[in-house]
Amino acid sequence: VKMFISQPRRIAAKSLADRVRSCEPDLRNKIALRMGHGVREYETNETQAWFVTTGYLVKLLANNPQKFDSHTHLIIDEVHERSVDTDILCLLCKRLLASNSKIRLILMSATLAAKIYQDYFDVRFPPIHVGAKRFPIEEFYVEDLDHHIHLPSKQLEAANVIYQFCEKNYCNTTPPSHLVEKMHGLAVQIALSVGSNGSSVLIFVPGMADIVSITDLVEKVEVHGIAFTCFPIHGDIPFEDQLQAFEPAEPGQVKVIIATNSAESSITLPDVDHVICLGLCKQITYNATSHRQILLPTWISKASATQRAGRTGRVRPGTVYRLYARNTFEHYMDSFEPGEMSRIPLDSVILNLADMLKEEVIPILLDCLEPPNISNIDRSFQSLYDSNFITSPDDGGEITKLGSLVVGLGIDLTLGSLVGLGIQFGVAAEAVQIAGILSFPKTPWVMTNPVFHDPETFNGK
């Protein structure tokens, strides 16, 4: 037996590899980890199973499909997330199955839209439930809070305002900023009320600003005899810093883990007794007029809500507090999130596919799980041509030298173009430095947040 197990994020691949190795001592030398940028851990001559990121597996399967001739199984976990990498990986696996009858493909998710994948892979096997027996989980919505938890009058008023908004405005808009602030205060009060010595509370929020806001609120509260300590999980936080959330709570401590959807699936935090969910996330939205992607707050799907609730009840009973109305969940939330490929410009997707597969891209995209709109494909070809990444604004062009450079760098296309122009004009070092600065998600002229580092120490370096 030899297999790859893909995970959508680095933190998930790392934590699962470590957990399997710790749970089964006999398997320690048989489990390895591979991720992008040359990360390799635990590999030995006895390795039989590799935990990998989805992006790594896409490139491996596209560039070296014969590698899989010696493998027996390929597991794609969390397929419900429908990222570009996951959908492309499913496409490549469909091709692999047509030429390799020995390998077995296993698709996994706690919220699997089975029919989509049954139709795509042309199989009629019913999905198999293999989950271990879970401990009971109690779920409370915002209108239930006053009956099940003691809250100050200010927070009860906030819960009522949130409930009224959900009942009247759900279909039209996400909560305005002042209402999200009320959600922050309510989430913190719930955490302070239910947090117990040596346990953890997990709060799901849409973005970094919410993590900072809730951390500030928690640190302003003094609870006699118990230390409430915040641990953030977010894609912009250094990988090693996020791993602190997996350490057991110390005696006299309550861990308050504040996370975006990075912690929604794949990872296990055993000591989480309570989950608090704001019901919001940041989602990329495609603006066809400007051919740009915008990151906007939006309500989560039912699948995401289920995944978030599943972070508790692993080793003992758990509780989930949803800071939105029951009616919102049951009647208005989408069952699943739309695939990422329908929500972004396809420039980078097209350029990378053309480079990896060396064939026409349109037939590939139209063979995806949910093919993107042909007009979006055409816009991206024109954009790539205008940026000098391809030689013609259609599927018949070749990748230019600049296009090959950008693909090799693996960075944003605009920044890659900047590096290419810097090389052309003899200022390569300066262009690389500027691109590196611009690739950072935040301005470099901001004091570090105390959530991550001590400002006096960090900014004094």
From TrEMBL:
<feature type="domain" description="Helicase ATP-binding">
    <location>
        <begin position="1"/>
        <end position="130"/>
    </location>
</feature>
<dbReference type="GO" id="GO:0004386">
    <property type="term" value="F:helicase activity"/>
</dbReference>
<feature type="domain" description="Helicase C-terminal">
    <location>
        <begin position="186"/>
        <end position="357"/>
    </location>
</feature>
<dbReference type="InterPro" id="IPR014001">
    <property type="entry name" value="Helicase_ATP-bd"/>
</dbReference>
<dbReference type="GO" id="GO:0003723">
    <property type="term" value="F:RNA binding"/>
</dbReference>
<dbReference type="InterPro" id="IPR027417">
    <property type="entry name" value="P-loop_NTPase"/>
</dbReference>
<protein>
    <recommendedName>
        <fullName>Helicase C-terminal domain-containing protein</fullName>
    </recommendedName>
</protein>
<dbReference type="InterPro" id="IPR001650">
    <property type="entry name" value="Helicase_C-like"/>
</dbReference>
<dbReference type="Pfam" id="PF00271">
    <property type="entry name" value="Helicase_C"/>
</dbReference>
